[in-house]
Amino acid sequence: MNKKAFKWWTILFSLMSLQGCSYVTVLRTRELAAVQDTLKIQIAALDKKISNQQQEQNELLRLIRADQAVRFSELERKYAQLSNNLSENQYRLSKIYENTSDVQKQLEEKLATDSATAQTRGLEIEKLFQIASEDFNAGRFDIARGGYEDIFSRFPDAPQGQESQFWIGECFYAEKNYEDAESAFLLYVHNYPSGGKACTALYKLGLCYEKLHKKNSQELVWKKLLETCPDSDEAKIVTSQMHIN
Fold first, then answer.
1. pTM to 2 decimal places
2. Which has the closest alpha carbon to 121: 163, 165, 162, 158?
3. Range of the domain at 129
4. How many domains does the chain have?
């Protein structure tokens, strides 16, 4: 082969090599472009997905904040209502305390007034009883009886009122008015069977029956005396009289 032919073959081979390299380069370039396009599509899809997720998260946060705002508003409303109720209850309690204090004060004043009235009333009854008793001891039996009758009619529940009924009988007995004395002693025994003068009233009632010659009645009433007042001085007197008789 001559040098000229070799040269042409060399040139031709070089051109063919260059053409093959260019073709490979083109293919690789296309492949890279396709990969880039795919990556761009994937990146765009990811961006969209991220954007959608961000929007969803933002919407969720908005809803959560809105719900919290509603809840906080409701809590504030309830707190305000509770505060108002508490204030109203405190006001009512203060009014109740004031009313209670007023009632207690009025009650204390009434009790003090009643106590003073009762004390004054007791002193009045005691003074009237003392005057009637002085008249009785002085032998002014009719005046004493009037005093006892006044006490009994005005103060029948007082101790002096009860005892005055007994002394009315004593006044009649001292005046030898035995029938009225009998009625007075009977009334005392009937009204106050456990009174302080019950035993004495039974004894004096028996004496009235004796003066009125009511033997059976006398025995019955003195028998009752011995049953109800066995240890009394009147029972001892009755017992000794029975032994004498």
1. 0.54
2. 158
3. 125-244
4. 1
